[in-house]
Design brief:
This protein is of the alpha+beta class and 101 residues long. The protein is built from four helices and two strands.
Length: 101
């Protein structure tokens, strides 16, 4: 497994930055998760879409470090799809309870 420190160091390497750039070019700077759902960001909906995209390891870096630079294990995802994949969205509780009114 890759530790947090190694993880951070990996993402600052020239090799990763080059591979990330190649993956984004291959994916036409479009979220592959959105494309699978029939949606695509346009310049009108996301004026600066390049800042809103991540390159994701399909098989997690921590579990498959040997695939860290494999183009077949990488895809471009928007922030939203990336967060959904990693279960980073949590439903917020409604502060206003309808029953109290």
């Amino acid at each position: 497994m890759i530790s947090t420190n190694n993880h951070l160091a990996f993402y600052s390497t020239k090799e990763w930055k080059h591979t990330r750039s190649e993956v984004r070019k291959r994916d036409n700077n479009e979220c592959q998760g959105c494309k699978r759902q029939g949606k695509v960001f346009t310049n009108k909906s996301e004026p600066d879409k390049r800042k809103r995209l991540d390159v994701d390891h399909i098989k997690e870096l921590e579990d498959y470090p040997e695939l860290c630079l494999s183009m077949d294990n990488l895809e471009t995802l928007c922030i939203r799809c990336h967060n959904v994949k990693h279960n980073r969205y949590q439903k917020k509780e409604n502060k206003w309870n309808d029953e109290q009114w």
